[in-house]
Design brief:
Number of strands: 0
CATH class of the largest domain: Mainly Alpha
Structural class: mainly alpha
Number of helices: 16
Distance between the termini: 36 Å
Helix content: over 70%
Largest sheet: none
CATH superfamily of the largest domain: MFS general substrate transporter like domains
Radius of gyration: 21 Å
Strand content: under 5%
CATH architecture of the largest domain: Up-down Bundle
Length: 440
């Protein structure tokens, strides 16, 4: 046996999952700040940029469930590697694109990568942990470590992506490359490293379903159907998945309205990429802190459910702080807005980590990645509703109303967290409920 195929210990699985999480999210961080600015610099107007983003969203929605089912059929490792390969292609094309057509193709490739990436790394870690330590293995520390490393990658990558173009002369160019293109190529390099690490260091864990290549086309719809049936059949899974829609509302509201509010408060419209980079980095740092605090929160709250509700309440309270800050100006408003922004991501990091753990305890290996794709789909559905509805609310009712509505939505999701956690054997049979104290 080679090092890549030898069975992994729980500690080794956690380390490798953390590394892959870092590499998976680093490209998104590097490209985040300059992405829209690059398209505008290439001569596209805001409406055309919006059309490209719409194509991206539609492609993700169309691919989420099929790609989740594919991961449950062909394996976690192959799906993660495919995601990295599509990311590499999309980022290289994005850095070289000069017009709508090439950007549209690049964003479709990016959507394929995103859809492939929604779940298989987590599923790889959970399946590997179950193989190493049994179905009752404590997943929280490793999931927290992976989520924290992902947030660290987003935080650091966003800052680097905002700084690098400013470090180059504005007149610098190399063929189609301009300063705003460079973060895209750095992101492509990170995707290439992820591809190499995945192939070298992630052995395929034991799974319930093993299919030959000839059975893939038949296996995908079967896996998708099984995942959807499980979500509808088991009320606890349905409720946990529905929470994702509320989270999507919150994250979309933050992405749409916070940058403009901070720019209004600081009065600094210049260097837009750097401003967005700093704002995003603060949020990702808060998310990393929340993920790291999730296991401790669950212990102090005497259970994952109570810990997740605590994180949800912190998120709602943070939105209330943002709402209150809209009637203020000057330094106090900036301080309150910054405090609300950071604590929102801390609370969301806590609740999402614990929600993920509760979902994994109820899902069998064969349907796990498909359920994570359903989760991602509902997150984006909530975001789509928020983008339309909250835009209207901001226009007619004001920004404070947006924050109050969003706070009410996320607070309402607290009642969806199920009371008793169940864990499954490799065959998918539910074990006895885990006591709240033990689950924490």
């Amino acid at each position: 046996m080679t090092a890549a195929t030898a069975p992994l210990t729980a500690q080794a699985a956690a380390r490798r999952y953390a590394l892959v999480s870092l590499l998976a999210w680093l490209p998104a961080g590097l490209m985040g700040a300059p992405m829209v600015l690059l398209m505008l610099q290439r001569g596209m107007d805001v409406a055309t940029v919006g059309l490209v983003m719409a194509i991206h969203s539609i492609a993700i929605v169309a691919l989420e469930l099929p790609t989740g089912g594919l991961a449950d059929v062909i394996g976690r490792r192959a799906t993660i590697a495919a995601s990295a390969l599509f990311a590499l292609a999309s980022l290289v094309l994005m850095g070289l694109a000069t017009g709508f057509g090439l950007f549209a193709v690049a964003f479709v490739l990016k959507a394929v990568s995103r859809a492939l990436a929604s779940g298989p790394a987590q599923a790889w870690y959970v399946d590997t942990m179950h193989a190493a330590a049994g179905p009752g293995a404590d997943l929280k520390p490793g999931l927290a470590r992976g989520a924290s490393m992902g947030s660290v990658a987003l935080c650091g990558g966003t800052l680097i992506g905002g700084i690098v173009p400013l470090a180059l002369p504005a007149s610098w160019s190399l063929g189609p490359l301009v300063p705003l293109s460079v973060p895209m190529l750095l992101a492509a390099a990170a995707a290439a490293v992820q591809l190499a690490v995945t192939l070298a260091a992630l052995p395929e864990p034991p799974r319930e379903r093993a299919a030959s290549f000839g059975n893939v086309l038949r296996g995908v719809p079967i896996a998708v159907t099984a995942g959807l049936r499980s979500g509808l059949r088991e009320r606890a899974i349905t409720r946990l998945l529905l929470v994702a829609a509320g989270v999507g509302v919150v994250l979309t509201a933050i992405e749409i309205f916070t940058p403009g509010r901070l720019q209004e408060l600081t009065g600094q419209p210049e260097s837009a990429g750097m401003v967005y980079a700093v704002v995003g980095a603060i949020g990702y740092a808060g998310s990393a802190l929340g993920s790291a605090l999730a296991p401790l929160t669950a212990r102090l709250a005497r259970g994952s459910r109570a810990g997740a509700i605590t994180g949800t309440c912190v998120t709602a309270l943070s939105l209330a702080v943002l709402a209150a800050s809209t009637s203020l100006g000057g330094t106090l408003a900036i301080v309150l807005a910054g405090l609300g922004y950071v604590t929102l991501y801390v609370g969301c990091g806590v609740s999402e980590l614990l929600r993920g753990e509760m979902l994994h305890r109820r899902a069998s290996s064969a349907e796990r990645t498909t359920l994570l794709s359903v989760d991602s789909l509902l997150l984006q559905a909530g975001g789509a509703v928020a983008a339309a509805g909250l835009g209207w609310a901001a226009l007619h009712l004001g920004l404070a109303a947006v924050w109050w509505i969003t706070a009410g939505v996320i607070l309402a999701t607290a009642v969806l967290f199920p009371r008793a956690a169940r864990t499954r054997t490799a065959s998918g049979e539910a074990l006895q409920p885990v006591p709240a104290g033990a689950a924490g």
